[in-house]
Structures are given as structure tokens and as C-alpha cells.
Design goal:
13 helices
């Protein structure tokens, strides 16, 4: 299952952990409102893929180390070498953040969150002992260790302070509250001893940007390197050559007939030749693009190869589809179980599909974290700012005494549907969220129930529906 987290005013991030090798499939459907101005001309599919979507993968555990290093990690000798030192410690931090994010979601929905808070406190204490048990000797590793130590101290403090600001924190046991306060005091004392206080000083924006920079530097050694290849270049070249051959054949036939009819070069013939060239230049690119799109309908648009950090070993291959569709063009299963919230056939739907094939030898005891980020900034820019105001009288007896004017912000509701299939399972699982966007960013994000069939219902579907779904999958490929 995916977990959703807001990242700033415009970004949303879906995360999950991949624990098995094989083929992982995920489909994302973003249902735009009927009054949205999203079109392939206002925001092209290619532009949306490279600016509004980010699909990344990171290492958890000791993935990326050679077998001899993984087998002999008990003596800790491998941490003295780079890049294994950065991969190991970076994957530790990656795993710590993933665990804290899961606990944060449990705390947000739980009425009594003492148990998730206890687990997060123990996790932070153990990670601090594990991280600070040894100190590296090399200068580059010392710099990496300092950035990780500072970032961990800040991140753990931010999480615990967020929990302390929760309205249910006052109802917890005094022993737990004292333990949280003691951990924060120890962290402040540790920063002072290690001369870390300069990284925590400054304006809030400056501190936040500094820690964000540290995070990007720390996660770089554990992020899989991606190489994107756009598919369909050969098809476009063939269509271009065929269209050129057809147009020039017709043009040559026209010239020979015109020469046989009249041996003199007339002004009308010159204008006709110029008109043919003008029409060719005007329609050629659109015609080539249209024919290429028709020939490649349902085929992947990009192929992404994912490599290990530093070692450049191929870990996985990913095929990506992205297109804009109308409601009747959706797969049969999505169309049948989308519910009453997707009834407008005129609304534009952004359809993203990914098939990730993980190498069999890649995941044995380790895990990979998948992160799918959605940047809604360009969608928010399409929402025109409203200048309307709502007037309300505070006093019913004397309406003119106190009149309040409330500015009205135009907002639009988007539905985000995520359908994913686990490795080795013949049924799919769906999750849905309702996004409310305004001109200044994401206003609200809430989880919604999905009218998705259970595994038993999917297996018990009528034979004709199963046959139709098979043909739908073949057409979508």
C-alpha cells in the first residue's frame, strides 16, 4: 500500500517499500474537474512527465554492497572504504526516515498515539547509538558523517516537537513525556559538544533550506541512477520518410502531367508549385506526429534503466506510459468501479502507468523504497484568481451595523486514483484521494474509500468480464 505525504505547498509524495523481485505495476489516474483548462496544448504530456512527475527509487538496508562485503559485514571493515561507507550510512538514514514516516501517519489517525510515539523514540535512540558508535577517519567521510549527524539530530527533533504539539500529547503518560523531553535535552547537549549549533541558527527559512540541502546530499549515494530513453524515434523516422516519399511522388506526377499539357512555364504553374510546398510545410509536422501517435497507441513512451550508485550495475528496467484520456477510454475495470465521482465524460484524465522489472538477484534480504511525487504547481497556475467577495452581516437585528466582506478563492477538486498489482498476485488493489487545489497551492488532501472489488470478487467475476479485461490489458500495452 502507498502512503501519501504533503511536501510543501504544491507537492505530494506517494511512497511504498518493494520487498520482492519481479514485475511491479502501478497505474495513476488523476481526474481533473470539468472546468479545468488542462489540454494537450496548455500542458503537453511530455512536459507534464518531466516537470510534474518524479518517480524515483532508493536503497534500504545494505543493498549495493558486494556479496563478500555483505557476508563479512560483522567485522565492520567494509565501512572504512568509499563508496561503501556512503551507501551503508545513507541507506540507514533512508530506512530511518521511511520508518518515521509510517509512524507519523499512525500518529495522525490514532486517538491515543502513545505506542507509535514509544516506537519512534526507541527508533531514534537506537539510530543515534548506531550512527555515533564509530567516527570515520577520512576527510570526505568525516564531512558526510557530520552532515548526517546534524540532519538526523534536526529531523528527530522536528518529529518529536511535532508530536508534542499534538492535542493528545498532554494525555500521555508522564514517564513517556519525560523521556521525550530528556531525549531532546541530550540532543541539544550533544550539538553543543560537537560544535553543531551553527547549523541550527538563523531564520527558519534558512535553517529549513540548509537541512533540505543536507538531505539531498545524504540521499545521493542511495538513489538509483536513471537513464531515460524516449521510445518511438524509429517509428517517427519511418513515418517521416514515408510521408516525404508520398508527397514527392504526387508532386513529381503533377509536374510531369503539367509539362505534357503545356511546354511553357506559366505563372499559374509556379504558384501551384509554391502552394504545394507551402501546404507540405504547414501540415507535415502535424501529420507526422498524428500518424506516429496512432501507430504507437498503447505502447510505452519511455524506457528507464536504473543502475546501482557508483557501481553502475543494472538493477531494474522500467517502462512508462503517459497520456490524456476521456472517461470512456479508460480500462474496463477502472471504468466499472470508479464510482459516482467519475461520471462526467468530458473531464480530462491524466493516465500514468509504470511497469518496473526488478532483477531476481537484486532483492534477497534488502528492500527498495519507491517514491512517486506529483507537483501540482502547473495545475494550480491554471486556476484563475477570483476577486469575488461574500458579504455577511454579523447582526441580524441591525444588518448595517457590522458588515464583513470575505474574499472568495476559486478552488478545484481533483481525484487521484492509484491502482497497483503486487508481484505474484493476480488481483489489483486501489487507493483514492481527493485533492482540493487553489491558485496558491494544495488546500486540502483527504483519503477516500474506493469502490474496488476484493480479491475474491475479482476472481469470481463473470467469464466474459475476465475476457474483456484481458483484451483491455493487451490493447493498453
Amino acid at each position: 500500500m502507498y502512503s501519501l505525504k504533503r511536501k510543501g505547498d504544491y507537492r505530494l509524495q506517494l511512497t511504498r517499500t518493494l520487498k520482492k523481485s519481479g514485475r511491479h505495476k502501478v497505474e495513476v489516474y488523476l481526474f481533473t474537474p470539468h472546468d479545468s483548462t488542462l489540454t494537450p496544448w496548455s500542458l503537453s504530456e511530455q512536459q507534464f512527465f518531466f516537470t510534474s512527475l518524479e518517480h524515483r527509487f532508493g536503497l534500504l538496508g545494505l543493498l549495493g554492497l558486494p556479496d563478500k562485503d555483505r557476508a563479512g559485514k560483522a567485522d565492520r571493515s567494509f565501512v572504512l572504504l568509499s563508496p561503501y561507507y556512503e551507501i551503508t550510512y545513507g541507506s540507514w538514514l533512508f530506512q530511518y526516515r521511511a520508518s518515521i514516516d509510517r509512524l507519523r501517519q499512525q500518529i495522525q489517525v490514532a486517538e491515543n498515539f502513545d505506542e507509535p510515539l514509544k516506537r519512534s523514540l526507541r527508533l531514534s535512540q537506537h539510530f543515534a547509538l548506531r550512527l555515533r558508535k564509530t567516527s570515520p577517519k577520512q576527510s570526505n567521510q568525516q564531512r558526510y558523517f557530520r552532515q548526517m549527524d546534524v540532519y538526523f539530530s534536526w529531523y528527530a527533533e522536528q518529529f518529536l516537537l511535532e508530536c508534542m504539539s499534538h492535542e493528545g500529547f498532554a494525555k500521555l503518560d508522564e514517564e513517556l513525556k519525560d523521556a521525550v523531553a530528556e531525549f531532546l535535552r541530550n540532543e541539544h547537549k550533544y550539538r553543543k559538544e560537537r560544535d553543531y549549533l551553527s547549523d541550527f541558527r538563523g531564520a527558519p527559512n534558512r535553517v529549513w533550506n540548509r537541512m533540505s540541502l543536507y538531505h539531498r546530499l545524504l540521499e545521493y549515494p542511495v538513489l538509483l541512477r536513471s537513464k531515460v530513453t524516449e521510445l518511438g524515434a524509429g517509428t517517427r523516422k519511418l513515418v517521416k520518410a514515408a510521408s516525404t516519399m508520398l508527397i514527392m511522388s504526387l508532386f513529381t506526377y503533377f509536374l510531369f502531367n503539367a509539362r505534357d499539357a503545356s511546354e511553357q512555364l506559366s505563372l499559374a504553374l509556379l504558384l501551384g508549385i509554391a502552394f504545394v510546398y507551402a501546404v507540405r510545410d504547414l501540415l507535415r509536422e502535424d501529420m507526422i506526429s498524428g500518424i506516429t501517435r496512432w501507430l504507437r497507441k498503447g505502447k510505452p513512451r519511455w524506457k528507464i534503466r536504473l543502475f546501482m550508485p557508483y557501481t553502475k550495475k543494472l538493477l531494474a528496467q522500467q517502462k512508462v506510459w503517459l497520456d490524456y484520456r476521456r472517461l470512456p477510454e479508460l480500462p474496463r475495470q477502472v471504468l466499472d468501479y470508479s464510482g459516482d465521482w467519475a461520471t462526467n465524460e468530458e473531464r480530462q484524465i491524466i493516465c500514468y502507468r509504470s511497469e518496473l522489472s526488478l532483477d531476481k538477484d537484486a532483492l534477497k534480504q534488502e528492500e527498495i523504497q519507491e517514491r512517486l511525487s506529483l507537483n501540482c504547481e502547473q495545475l494550480c497556475e491554471m486556476i484563475q484568481a477570483s476577486k469575488h467577495r461574500l458579504f455577511v452581516s454579523a447582526d441580524e437585528n441591525d444588518p448595517a451595523a457590522n458588515i464583513e466582506a470575505h474574499p472568495i478563492e476559486k478552488q478545484q477538486d481533483y481525484d487521484l486514483l492509484v491502482v497497483h498489482t503486487e508481484v505474484g498476485k493476480a488481483f489489483s488493489t486501489a487507493q483514492r484521494w481527493r485533492l482540493r487545489l487553489g491558485a496558491s497551492g494544495i488546500v486540502k488532501c483527504e483519503s477516500k474509500k474506493t469502490n474496488w472489488p476484493t480479491p475474491e470478487e475479482q476472481f469470481a467475476a463473470p467469464w466474459y468480464r475476465r475476457v474483456v479485461s484481458v483484451f483491455d490489458k493487451k490493447e493498453s500495452k
